Amino acid sequence: MAEQYFAENPGAAHDEKTVIFNVLGQELRCVTDAGVFSRDGLDMGTRVLLEALPELRGRVLDLGCGWGPVGVALGRRDPALEIVMTDVNARAVELAARNLRANGVTNARAAQSDGFDRVDGDFDFIVLNPPIRTGKAVIYGLFAGAARRLRPGGEMYVVIRKQQGAESAQRYLETVFGRVERIARDKGYWVLRCAQPEEEK
Question: Most buried of 67, 112, 113, 172 (most Cβ within 10 A)?
Answer without folding.
Answer: 67
